[in-house]
Amino acid sequence: MKIKTFIPCLLFIAAFLVISGCQTRSSVVVTPYTEPGKDYSRALPPGELALRKITDPRQIPDYTKACSDLDGLKETIARSLRYMEKPSSRKFYPYGEITHEHALRSLRELEKLVNLKLSPEQMNRILKEQFDTYISVGCDDQGTVLYTGYYTPIFDGSPVRTDRFRYPLYKAPADLVKGPDGAILGRKGSDGVVQQYPSRLDIEKSGMLAGHELVWLGDPFEVYIVHVQGSAKIRMHGGQIETIGYAAHNGWEYKSIRHKLIADGKFTEKNINLKAMIDYFKIHPHEVDRYVHDNPRFVFFKEEKGEPRGSLNEPVTPFRTIATDKTIYPRAMFAFAAVDLDRPVGFALDQDTGGAIRAAGRCDVYMGVGDQAGELAGKTYREGQLYYLFIKPDSDQMKDDSGRGK
């Protein structure tokens, strides 16, 4: 059974693709030389979902290898369960034929299964026999999904402005208006009329957010990196680490600065990457505004307790949390990432989302905190398949004591 594909012999270069919308962060990805016309962000026809139920047992992947590595999975499932047990999660179901109750029961049964500490072979057999497997249609209706990575950077900072720390990250302003689904509607004026919120350039040039500073950083491009990632760990003067997370954005679409840097001859397609951009702007800090102002999206932040959180408002787990387009994928669900990465993923929970991950052909893997995680995220660009598991409606687990299906 073929459970993974990848792009061999490609030269990779790192770049930013922002993941925003109602999302908490963005991803650092790499851009390879791909076949002309290949579109991982190809939109599905209106009303279609990303998953297709597998009816031929021969097409179900072998989960044995993934079943041998369950570290962190129990806690990650528990985080999805906390979300699914909230009344607010019901508004995102049914997902196709999967009701909210069916989805919740699936997670509960998977949690029980993980706790049984079965052999990999036993667990693989149960997953195949008692759970339905759905496969993503991918970017080509053949199941091809592009996997990229994201992470949480660590930067030095200060809660107050100093000579060194002069570049702020801001809290969300009171006049930012959101819709019932969390979408940014704009800015409420003194007359009560909601208008488009100012762009990044207008916000920064006007100083309109003075007094809303959350924390100060020592490098203007580090500020931009946090905007792209959507969360960060800030190392304060006393050595303590504070977490800041995504709160909202200004409602503008993201525009990559990568293309402009290449067009201006600062980098080539072969040598642009996150580290190269950081090094370049350390030498040329006066050029930061020229490029970042080309991206009109502006992100607001809030203090977080513990680890960074995803779009479910639950902590994200390295190599166990994935991000997908939540308009076409089911929130919080148990997935199998069939992809060959430097650090294997295997089973994961769909707990995050973002503006750049907007199609069936994209999936982002959270890779952790700090430079090492960033380096790994920066070289992640692999094709694979993506599967989701739901308990079979007629399984014994889905019946009450009387034997009647619930």
Give a summary of the structure in a few sentences.
With 406 residues, the chain is α+β, with helices and mostly antiparallel strands. Helices cover 22% and strands 26% of the residues.
Structure characterization notes:
With 406 residues, this protein is α+β, with helices and mostly antiparallel strands. The chain folds into two domains: 13-150 and 312-398, Beta Barrel (Barwin-like endoglucanases), CATH 2.40.40.10; 152-304, Beta Barrel (Ribosomal Protein L25, Chain P). The chain has ten helices and 19 strands. The chain has helices spanning 64-67, 73-84, 100-115, 120-130, 200-206, 220-229, 258-263, 274-283, 288-292, 371-378, and strands at residues 13-17, 27-31, 51-53, 131-136, 145-152, 154-158, 167-170, 176-178, 184-188, 194-195, 213-217, 231-235, 241-249, 299-304, 321-323, 334-339, 346-352, 362-369, 382-391. A hairpin with a 5-residue loop joins strand 12 (231-235) and strand 13 (241-249). The two termini are 34 Å apart.
